[in-house]
Design a protein that fits this description.
Layout (H helix, E strand, L loop, with lengths): L2 H11 L2 H36 L1 H11 L2 H6 L7 H51 L3 H4 L3 H40 L3 H49 L1 H6 L3 H51 L3 H46 L18 E9 L9 E9 L3 E6 L5 H9 L6 E6 L13 E4 L10 H6 L9 H10 L3 H5 L18 H14 L4 E5 L7 H14 L4 E5 L11 E6 L2 E4 L2
Parallel strand pairs: 3-7, 3-8, 5-6, 6-7
Antiparallel strand pairs: 1-2, 1-4, 8-9
Helix pairs in contact: 1-11, 2-3, 2-5, 2-7, 2-11, 5-7, 7-8, 7-11, 8-10, 8-11, 10-11, 14-16
Length: 577
């Protein structure tokens, strides 16, 4: 990914406050770079003193006046006092630098932790707000992967970019100081480090980019096979499919691990290879300096400074190389998150109240087809639903019944035509406390029956009789009474300790207690026996006469409970009652 493109995408994802905090991090690092220069420079006279104390003493006496020494409280200039002074200065310089660096690291990591939470919340909210049509063609495993893996990768991308900028400035600053001591030697070191970096990055560029794409794809497959396996565990056991799913999981995990392994090896090998190349260069430089100069003190000083140069610059070059390779490996994460943020919203999520009492929902000449289909799923559908109507919609599997419900609710937009609520062209589901919806698959929290019925609502807003009425109307009362904990009976993950029919009745009770104007049932009684289904429909129709009820069912015997009935057939809506 080009640096300009990376920055453009990166800036697109952050808000103003986050950008300001990143600027602060760079400013803080600027001060540490100054202290880095001071601390590195402080080592030069110390190395010179250790190699040649007499020469250092002569320079001190030459460049520092007696008045200055008296002011600094030095009575006698000797090697011991000079050594103590130099060591003290080095300790203070490195101490201040590392203390400031520790504070910056704390500030930086605190910022990235909050950024992680912020980005996760924004992406999660985006998924909640995006048009429902997106999920009809999407993949839940990719959504989980983006929230669980790609956002942390994006945080790492930002960290890598900061490391590249900071280490580049450190290298440039230190190089200016060191080149002034022996420009030939230090230019040679810098050239070797730069050439190695370009060669190493260029050689593995394609390999690591492909490995990154494989990692992202197989991370999604990895999550998908886990969801599929444990969601169908009873079927897998009965059909003896253990080996089949084990092989799928093994192949996916093996490919995923190999992709990550390539990245890890490339990152780890850079340090070892760079270290070996620099050892060869240093050995050659030492021999050259020794044979070229007869001044042993000079040679020792240059060797000491060279070692200092290599020890300090090598980690920075290694970090830059590894950061660039890591960015190439996980740059696909940036693309994924940007695509999510770029998904347009048909409507901004906002609670809205009807200006008057619900009177009618009008469907006007609706046509609908999915993006890649040439044929319309629904054609020229029109219907008026009055506030107290009890509507039943039947049809064969795949005829478009659920699609019609999604259009009425406003979860998807028609290709042409309108859905009007009291004449207002606004999605029905966005009206506050207007609709209670019961799908075929009921979401069950790992909590009590009571909490699963109240769900997001506060218990304080209801009377105890409200819960009892909901339990009675959904034919759940006997189930609750049979449990020792009554309505506080704990349900397991996805309601594994109750039947599908009991889960559907909890969904119906949840809808009833919401006291909304409209009740929408999408095959909400498909897992119930005829007796229980009859009891529930009788309760709903007779006790909620002023409530609009729209029901999708596959049982024609249920038509008797509704005052209007329609059949979806060949894309048309036919009235049959």
């Amino acid at each position: 990914m080009k640096i300009k493109k990376f920055l453009k995408t990166f800036l697109f994802l952050l808000n103003e406050k986050e950008l300001i905090r990143i600027k602060k991090i760079f400013i803080f690092y600027f001060f540490t770079i100054l202290l880095e220069l001071i601390s590195i420079t402080s080592l030069v006279p110390l190395i010179g003193f250790i190699i040649s104390p007499e020469l250092t003493m002569t320079k001190v006496q030459t460049y520092i006046s007696i008045d200055t020494l008296n002011y600094l409280n030095f009575k006698v200039i000797d090697t011991q006092s000079i050594l103590i002074s130099l060591c003290t200065f080095v300790i203070i310089a490195f101490g201040i630098k590392n203390l400031l660096l520790a504070l910056i690291v704390r500030y930086r990591e605190n910022f990235f932790a909050k950024l992680h939470v912020g980005l996760s919340q924004r992406v999660f909210k985006k998924y909640l707000e995006v048009n429902y049509k997106f999920f009809l063609k999407g993949n839940s495993s990719s959504i989980v992967r983006n929230l669980d893996r790609e956002i942390p990768n994006l945080i790492s991308l930002i960290k890598f970019f900061i490391d590249i900028v900071v280490d580049s400035i450190i290298i440039l600053s230190i190089s200016i100081v060191l080149i002034s001591l022996n420009y030939k030697l230090y230019l040679s070191i810098i050239c070797i480090l730069i050439l190695f970096s370009f060669f190493y990055i260029g050689y593995f560029k394609k390999i690591i980019k492909i490995a990154g794409a494989v990692r992202q794809e197989y991370q999604m497959r990895f999550l998908r096979v886990i969801n599929e396996t444990f969601g169908l565990l009873n079927y897998i056991k009965v059909e003896k499919l253990n080996t089949f799913f084990y092989k799928i999981f093994s192949n996916i995990s093996d490919t995923l691990v190999k992709a990550n392994l390539k990245r890890n090896l490339i990152v780890l090998l850079s340090k070892n290879l760079l270290e070996f190349i620099l050892i060869i260069f240093l050995s050659s430089a030492i021999m050259f300096l020794y044979f070229d100069s007869k001044d042993l003190d000079y040679v020792q000083f240059q060797i000491g400074i060279t070692l200092l140069c290599v020890i300090r610059l090598m980690p920075s070059f290694t970090r830059i190389v590894n950061s660039i390779n890591s960015i190439k490996f996980i740059s696909v994460s940036l693309k994924s998150i940007k695509e999510i943020q770029s998904i347009p919203l048909n409507f901004k999520f906002k609670e809205k109240y009807l200006s008057s009492k619900l009177e009618k929902i009008s469907i006007k000449n609706i046509y609908f087809k999915f993006d890649k289909n040439k044929k319309f799923t629904l054609s020229n559908v029109s219907i008026d639903i009055e506030s107290n109507d009890k509507i039943c919609i039947v049809g064969e599997t795949g005829s478009g019944k659920s699609t019609l419900l999604n259009l009425i609710l406003g979860l998807v937009s028609p290709s042409s035509g309108k859905v009007l609520v009291n004449g207002d062209n606004y999605p029905l589901y966005l009206f506050n406390n207007m609709v209670s919806y019961v799908p075929q698959d009921i979401l069950i929290l790992e909590s009590s029956i009571k909490n699963n019925i109240y769900f997001d609502k506060s218990v304080k807003d209801f009377k105890p009789t409200d819960l009892m009425s909901a339990l009675s109307d959904s034919d759940l009362y006997s189930l609750v009474q049979s449990k020792k904990q009554k309505e506080n009976f704990p349900l397991l993950e996805n309601g594994k300790n109750i039947s599908f029919g009991q889960k559907q009745r909890i969904g119906i009770a949840r809808a009833i207690i919401g006291k909304s104007n409209i009740l929408v049932l999408d095959e909400a009684t498909s897992s119930l026996d005829e007796k229980t289904e009859k009891t529930i429909f009788n309760n709903l129709v007779n006790r909620y006469k002023k409530k609009m009820i729209i029901c999708v069912t596959h049982r024609l015997s249920n038509l008797k409970y509704f005052n209007k009935a329609f059949k979806v057939e060949n894309g048309k809506l036919l009235r049959i009652k």
